[in-house]
Design brief:
Keywords: Metal-binding, Zinc, Zinc-finger. This protein has 375 residues and is an alpha+beta fold. Helix content is 45%, strand content 13%. It is built from 14 helices and nine strands. The protein is flat. 21% of the residues are buried.
């Protein structure tokens, strides 16, 4: 047994399989494989029933088992039921492939020690070795506890006792004559009237646009953006829209002209609203980002754009371009290309000192510049 304990601590035994009435493991020694099995006699149904009846008489033990624990006092219930849960020396039968002469070889002894360590971690394995899994044991115990609770409410002859519970005493109250004879109390003050609705900025014109149609169109566009992302056509899913971007989106997707004034005021930034709507119409959400955001593109993108412009234009025809971050401006001509994070070039035209989106974006800056000049 001492050699078995030492062998158990070497880690040379493989995984242990626990099943009703059986413990088994495999291992290697000096390069030779072996299998060790310990068998244990299970309990019959009568023994289990007797054990659960004695366990149900101990509420703390029963509650612990039903809560997923295995209380130590279960062994006392087993003694009362004359059931042996813990295996004795004669209860275990060892079988090993090794050539050891001892009845209990080093491998079987090591398996016994490791099994005891497993029981310390999960005591319900003891019930499994005797023939009941944790769920089966809890279900059988729950049935016995329920039957005993039902039997406790019956008489000795098996019928309900004739004694009736005493009627609950009624609380002391106020006589009706006294209650109705009292003078009525003063009513509480009325709450203040609600404030009138704010209608100063509300439009008196009828709205001809069907709100449901706007919602359907918006949902369809949103679904298209999500589908493009799932198929790898866009690098990121569409971001949720705040109030500003949602007002711009609705205005850009063609509502009734009488709705535009309401959207402009609701957006919170009416001065930028028209340009933002134009940017959305030409380039969607990314087009609005190009209007509002200035960023520095990677050097590789800038070099590739320079090469594309040089290849698409004759050297003497290429206009002078001032480059500032992602804004490429044709000096003195009021024309500009803006590079978006989606890799496309957005044409802009200067009007009254402000830059306005002028055309649809292109992946080729030379094509975008040509359309901008021709337009």
């Amino acid at each position: 047994m001492k050699r078995g304990r030492a062998y158990a601590r070497t880690g040379q035994l493989g995984p242990i399989t626990v099943s009703p009435g059986r413990l088994s493991t495999t291992g290697y020694e000096d390069g030779d494989p072996f299998r060790t099995v310990l068998t244990l006699h299970g309990l019959d149904d009568a023994a289990w029933e007797s054990l659960w009846e004695k366990t149900a008489e101990r509420p703390e033990v029963a509650d612990g088992m039903l809560a997923g624990e295995l209380p130590p006092d279960l062994l006392e219930a087993a003694e009362d039921a004359r059931v042996s849960l813990l295996p004795g020396y004669a209860d275990l039968e060892a079988d090993c492939d090794c050539d050891a002469l001892e009845y209990v070889c080093t491998h079987a002894a090591a398996l016994s020690y490791q099994a005891s360590w497993l029981l310390d971690e999960d005591p319900f394995l003891l019930l499994l070795l005797r023939g009941r899994s944790a769920s089966e044991a809890q279900e059988e115990l729950r049935s016995v506890v329920l039957l005993q609770a039902i039997a406790g409410g019956l008489g000795s002859a098996g019928t309900r006792q004739d004694t009736k519970p005493a009627a609950p005493s009624m609380p002391d109250g106020i006589p009706a004559e006294e209650m109705f004879g009292r003078a009525p109390a003063a009513l509480p003050a009325l709450p203040p009237l609600p404030t009138p609705p704010v209608t100063a900025h509300a439009s008196t014109a009828s709205i001809g646009t069907d709100p449901l149609e706007l919602l359907i169109n918006g949902a369809a566009l949103r679904a298209r953006e999500l589908l493009a992302y799932t198929h790898g056509l866009t690098a990121a899913p569409p971001a949720p829209l705040d109030l500003w971007r949602d007002c711009v989106r609705i205005a850009a997707t063609g509502p009734d002209t009488r709705v535009l004034a309401r959207l402009r005021e609701a957006s919170g930034n009416p001065q930028r609203f028209e340009r933002a709507v134009a940017a959305w119409r030409w380039g969607g959400s990314t087009g609005l980002d190009v209007l509002e955001e200035v960023w520095t593109p990677p050097y590789q993108d800038t070099a590739r754009a320079r090469h594309a412009l040089a290849a698409g234009w004759e050297q003497d025809e290429l206009p002078e371009i001032e480059m500032h971050d992602n804004h490429w401006t044709l000096a003195g001509r009021g024309l500009q290309l803006r590079y978006g994070r989606d890799g496309r070039w957005y044409p802009y035209r200067q009007e009254d000192g402000r830059w306005w989106p002028a055309a649809a974006p292109h992946e080729d800056p030379a094509e975008a510049l040509a359309d901008l000049i021709d337009g």
